[in-house]
Amino acid sequence: MPVFISYSHQDAHFVNRLAAHLTQAKVHVWVDTWELHVGDSLISKVQEAIQESSALIVVLSCNSVESEWCKRELNAGLIRELEEKRVVILPALLEDCQIPIFLREKLHADFRTNYDHGLRLVLEAVAKVTSTRLGRVEDPEWHTDWALDAGEVEEYFCLQLTFVAHSESQPYCVLTEVRMRCNEIATARYKKYAEAGLESFGQLMLLEFLRGTEKLDNLNMIITDDTTQMQEFRAYDSKIGAGLDGVIICRRLGEDTGRDLFFHLGRQISGTIDQIQHRMRPLTQEEREKVKEVFHRT
Asked: Which domains are seen in the chain, by residue range?
């Protein structure tokens, strides 16, 4: 998903420079002058962009803090932060100005004296909300840190999800590895995505394939002691012959409470896939055509 840049048009020179550097770093940005066309509804297009963005970079200047448009965009971002309970707004301080009260306690990317330093801070902040390799899933009982690894093993494409789940109310965490190996057909399909420059999309499709199995929602692990628990699984599509064979390796770390732990792994996997999908930018028309070609060729 894109990163929305909120700014005053009087600061367009700075914003165009910033957006260009973010784009060079492979960050998908949404800037109104880049995206809007004659006849577009300003309100609906901007509202849609803010709602679908991974984050909002709010450029703070004397011009922007007085702009009614910028105030509306900031308020929309603050509402999302409250609703989603995560960082959405990334302040970028262009010059000394009256910082809005709700942003004063946030760390700013300071561009006032050193552009490169400010850019580095912005890139670090954006990486946290756009990375498709690392992340954290929150739910009422647990927060789960995850990582995704991918590569070939003996000519078969493989994926591995690693989870570390923490509970504030328990003196332990749960370490889980989900190792998946594609069969020949699934590997061939992924390689076609990779050849088309759509590696991340191809990996997402494999993860969605996993989520499409009927057993995922009911995929739970019962940890009874301090030993490693293992469970094998298979996801297979008889229509196209593509399949995944996998194994789940799970164990508790920390204090042994003497109690069994019922761990909802399917929910953790599904939440991770949702987060990866949310962080990916939408496909261009050219890329959608390439996806169609892959489907027709397999």
From this structure: 3-130 (3.40.50.10140), 134-297 (no CATH)
